[in-house]
Specification:
Largest sheet: 49 strands, mixed
Mean pLDDT: 83
Helix content: under 10%
Number of strands: 76
Radius of gyration: 28 Å
Low-confidence stretches: 592-597, 645-649
Strand content: over 45%
Structural class: mainly beta
Number of helices: 0
Length: 666
Amino acid sequence: RKNMYMGGIIGHNGTKLNHTLTNITNTGNITAAGSANRFILAGLVGSTANDLPLENCSNSGSITVESTQSFNGEHAWVAGLTGIILEATGAKQITLTNCSNSGDICVKNTTYSGQLAVGGISAQMIYNSSNKYCGKMYITDCTNTGDITVENVSVAKDFSVGGILSSISKTGYADIKAPTQRGNITVTIPSSNTVLHTAIGGIIGNMEAGKIGKNDSGKRGSVSGQIKVLSHGEAAGHWHSVAGIVGFANENAEEIADVDVLADNESCVSVEMTNAACNTYVTGMVGYIPMAMSIKNLVNSAAINYKVNGQSTANCLPYVSGGCGRAFAAITMDNCTNNGDITVEGTKMTVELDCGGLLACHHTAHGQFSNLTNNGDILIKKGDGTCGILYIAGIAGGQLVACTATNHFTNCTNNGDITLEEGLSTTGKAGNIRLGGCFAWTKQSYDENIRNNGNINIHANTTGSNTQMLLGGVYGYNAAAANSDMDGGYVNTGTLTITGGTGTSTNVFGSAIGGIVGAFYGNISNAINTGDIKFTGSSNATNSSVGGIVGYSTAAGKITNCQHYGNIQAIDMAKGVQYPNVGAITGSHRVQKTGGGAARTALVENCQLGGAMLGEYNTEDESYKTTTLKADNFFKYIYGSGEATDWTGTDNYDGCSVLTAKPNVD
């Protein structure tokens, strides 16, 4: 059989049929078995080759596809209400207004040689093998409460699942307003699967055109329920993208706006993988974004969980976030909030992990990110075995290229705690842990009004040679060019606690820990740190440094108009000695230890420092040697070496003074 069309009301709406469906309800269950080149199944209308308006229509019958036979063909579509626009000669349009599906959808024990698309309301926007026309779909005030289950299904090409719409082709268009998704989505991918791409979203799985937003009366879209994916292994080079709103946004996708992913109904986005061999995106909002688009006014409150049981290839990179996964294009992201906690557990996760409260990784020099807030905690669990490089942050995990003066982050705040669990161990390249309250790794310095209020707790270890921890209250590592300026206003109020140990380092600096930034080569000004720093892990890198503002800095620039007030403790507890490179402003030395030569760190000017420096531990009375910063001694603790003058005897703290109370940063 070439095509199999099945619908609770209409199997196929042909080119000469002009139907309008109003107040139509299907309550009957639909069960399909057999094989066909094209398999189309939906609760109301399987497919249409003509315009089709639906209003106040519903399906409550279950839809089941199960067979020991193969469904061989290019594609298969299964949906709660409508399947697809199919093989028409002109632009056709489906309009769904105030329609709903409450029937459960189950696809299991089947094999497809092409594409599989499953949607709670509709399966796919358009299909035509020559892509010579554009279909359009308008979905307004529609609701899905039915559960979607896909189990033990093998797909040779693309596989998409959406709570409202499975897939929008790049030659089609969909305008979805105020969608409501309440059903659970559960997908189990067998080890024999060779699927190229998997896109799963609470609203849309694969979005290559169109937009999502509120309706004309201002009602927002909403998602609740569980999205769970269990994958038993994939071919290398493929990817999974799983998200609370849109799994994959590409090509002509315009805007995703005004949607809430709620915390009720035990809402979560969870992915568990065995022998992972592909890039994986697990997020609360949008998964993989290779093209330019607008993302705004989104809120995620669902928990985000990713667990991997081994990697079978070095090309496997997980991107985990409460917001978006990986952006390759000039996206605009504004007024988005993550409230969901993020948990990652890895067994032999040997490559790297990019994880951020709002963005896992940003790969382009273009993009505007503003008014982003993370309230969710991030927990990286130990699992069994070692991990590779970790890029972890409250706002954005990894940013691999420099932004510009007009493309950067503004008005971003992290309130969530970040914890690397005791027993977690990283190994591999230099820079094993790059972690910041807001940004883990960036190559630019144009950000404005960035703040971290979350506590950072590092109990993990870096092992092997040439390893580092680059940690900061705001930035872990800012690799912007020398003499670049960080002057946009940065605040950290969170406590940094590091009990894990580090391996050796042959870099110019070892581990670097700073109240604002771990390591930075340029100028920094207008930064305030009121968070305590406690580094009691054991480090084999003798050139590690700890600073109230900057952990490691260079002679390329200056540190000006910055304030630090808090306690700093940097002791190798295993050896019972204090680290030598500890300062209330910068952990780096100001002058060459041997005298003469160039200065070794940026000049500090017009800075204020207060609090206390905690020294060696006294085992007799279980106390620490404490030095309170005062007017007569503060200058000794500006730099990591305690040197207040350069090798000529000239002061190196022009305009600096002591702080007697914590500054008000509210």
